[in-house]
Design brief:
With 217 residues, the protein is α/β, with parallel strands linked by helices. It folds into two domains: 132 residues, Response regulator (Rossmann fold, 3-Layer(aba) Sandwich); 69 residues, Winged helix-like DNA-binding domain superfamily/Winged helix DNA-binding domain (Arc Repressor Mutant, subunit A). The chain has eleven helices and five strands. It has a five-stranded parallel β-sheet with strand order 2-1-3-4-5, sandwiched between helices. Strand 1, helix 1 and strand 2 form a beta-alpha-beta unit. Helix 4 packs across helix 6.
Length: 217
């Protein structure tokens, strides 16, 4: 039996939430389990419902989607945040990634890319349009600090797993590419995060960008 992806839609416009809900629930693999019109409500929904994915608007009352994303990430649950906003990547992409979101999608792309983006982040991968990847590369190229030194603490196989994880491949897909089991991939990933002092997959993505392991598409 296929597990259904549970989603919370957080947006302060009721009509937009209704449209997104209809789009999601037309797909039998997904269901909307909650709605929120403020950042505070979004965090409370995650706390009580533990959804797989939160679709997060950035412009909401009480506190905005960026702060709500930070608070959700701090909860330590498996819930992934996919930002869905009218704002172009240039304005908010870096803060959103640093807040712990697993993806960024503009509302103008929702009709074509939303369902795939939800599936990607629900699998624990990162969904970023190619233009967003380019922006992140530019942002982190100037901020390498001691990351190159930290990179050298990783074995060549750990660096391979790190790079493929940052590119969005699942443990199963990485295992196939490297001819190892998914469980071994998870062990490598845990070791990498321990060595680098990281706690979230999104932090692995940022690290890979800064040290040049994630190449521009």
């Amino acid at each position: 039996m296929v597990e259904v992806i549970t989603v919370v839609v957080a947006d302060d416009h009721a009509m937009f939430r209704a449209g997104i809900k209809a789009l999601i629930e037309a797909n039998s693999a997904m269901t909307v389990v909650g709605e929120a019109s403020t950042g505070d409500e979004a965090v409370k929904c995650v706390h009580s419902l533990r959804p797989d994915v939160v679709l997060m608007d950035l412009s909401m009352p009480e506190y905005n989607g960026l702060e709500a994303t930070r608070r959700i990430a701090a909860l330590g649950f498996d819930t992934k945040v996919l930002v869905l906003t009218v704002h172009a990547e240039e304005e908010y992409l870096v803060p959103v990634v640093e807040a712990g979101a697993s993806g960024y999608l503009t509302k103008t792309s929702a009709d074509t890319d939303l369902l795939e983006a939800i599936k990607v982040v629900a699998r624990g991968q990162v969904f970023l349009p190619p233009t967003a990847t380019t922006l992140l590369l530019k942002r982190y190229k100037e901020d390498e600090s001691d990351d190159k030194v930290s990179l050298h603490t990783l074995s060549s196989r750990e660096q391979e797993v790190l790079a493929l994880t940052a590119e969005g491949f699942s443990s199963r897909e990485i295992g196939k590419k490297l001819f190892i089991s998914p469980k071994t991939v998870d062990t490598y990933r845990s070791r990498i995060m321990q060595k680098l002092g990281l706690s979230h997959r999104s932090e692995l993505v940022r690290f890979a960008l800064r040290v040049g392991l994630l190449k521009q598409i």
